[in-house]
Amino acid sequence: MLQFLLRRFSQSILLVIAMAIVVFFGVYALGNPIDLLVNPEAPTAEYDAAVKRLGLDLPLYEQFFRFLSNAIQGDFGNSFIHGTSATELIFQKMPATFELAFSVIIMAVVVGVPLGMIAGFNHDNAIGRTIMSGSIFGFSLPNFWIGMLLILLFAVKLGWLPSIGRGDTVEIFGIPFSFLTLDGLKHMILPVMTMALYKMSIIIRLTRAGVMEVMEQDYIKYAYAKGLKKNRIIFVHVLKNILIPVVTVVGLEFGNVLAFAVVTESVFSWPGMGKLLIDSILLMDRPVVVAYLMIVVVIFIVINLIVDILYAALDPRIRLTTK
C-alpha cells in the first residue's frame, strides 16, 4: 500500500509539473492584458510602468521560473484586476462551487442508483424501458439549454424559484453555506437540477448494466438457491459488486463538476470558481486563470487517488501494490 501511494505521488508530481508548463505557456502566449488595464491614450511612461509592475517585461522563460518557484509555495501572483492574491480569490469562490458540486453528486447518486437498479431488475418490461428512455434526455440536452428552460419555467412563468445568485448563507468556521437557509436552498435547486441531469443519466445506465451483469453470476444464483431473502441479495451481493464502476464515475464526475461548472454558474450567476474564471478570461487576468487551472489539476489528481484507494476497500481482489 505504501509503495503504491509513493509511486502515485511521484507520478502526480510529474503530472503537475507538466501541466504547469502547458498551462503557463498556453495562457501567457495569448494576448496582452496591458491593453485592457491601461488607457490606450495614456503616456508611454505609464504603460511601461504597468508592464514592469506586472513583471511582463521579463523574458517568458524567466516569468515561468518565477511562477514555478512561487507556485510551489502556493503563490500564483496577484490578480491584475483585483490587485489581491489570485489564490485567495479562488479559495473565496471555492466553497460556492464545492457546495454545488456535492449537491449535484448527491442528487445524482441518490436518484440514479435506485433508478438504475430498478431498470436493471426490470430490463425486459415497460418500467425499465421507461427509465432508460428518460435517461436519454440527460445525454441529449446541453446544460445551458436545460438551465435556460428551467429558468423560463420555474422562475419566469411560475415564479416559484429564483434564477440568479446564491441567496442567503450561514457561515460555519468562516465558510458560507447556502443549504442551511431556506432562501439558499431555493437558489440551489435550479443549478443543481441543471447539472445533475447528465450525471444522473450516466449513473442510471452504468448501474443498470452492472445489475444485469451481476445477476447472471453463479454466486447470485447460489444465493437464491440457498433461500436468502431478496433484499439481502440486492443490497449485499448485488449493490456491493456494482459500486466499483459507480465509484469511478462519481469520482471523475465530481471533478468534472468542479472544473466545468463554468456554463451553469454563468447562466445562474452563481458566485463560484467557474464564473470567476469566465470573468478573468474576458479581462485577461492571467494569474487568476493560471491559479484556477493548476488548482483544478491538483483536485483531479487527489480525486483519482481517493478513487483508487476506494477500489481496494470495495474489492479485496484489487492489489494496490501491483499497480
Description:
- The protein has 323 residues and is mostly helical.
- The chain has a domain of 198 residues: MetI-like fold.
- It is 73% helix and 2% strand.
- It has 13 helices and 2 strands, in the order H-H-H-H-H-H-H-E-E-H-H-H-H-H-H.
- The chain has a two-stranded antiparallel ribbon.
- Strand 1 and strand 2 form a beta hairpin.
- Helix 1 runs antiparallel to helix 4.
- The chain is globular and about 85 Å long.
Secondary structure: elements and pairs:
Layout: H1 2-28, H2 34-37, H3 44-53, H4 60-72, H5 86-121, H6 126-140, H7 143-157, E1 170-172, E2 175-177, H8 182-214, H9 218-225, H10 230-259, H11 262-267, H12 273-282, H13 286-314
Antiparallel strand pairs: 1-2
Task: Write a concise keyword list for the protein shown above.
two-stranded antiparallel ribbon; MetI-like fold; 73% helix; 323 residues; mainly alpha; 2 strands
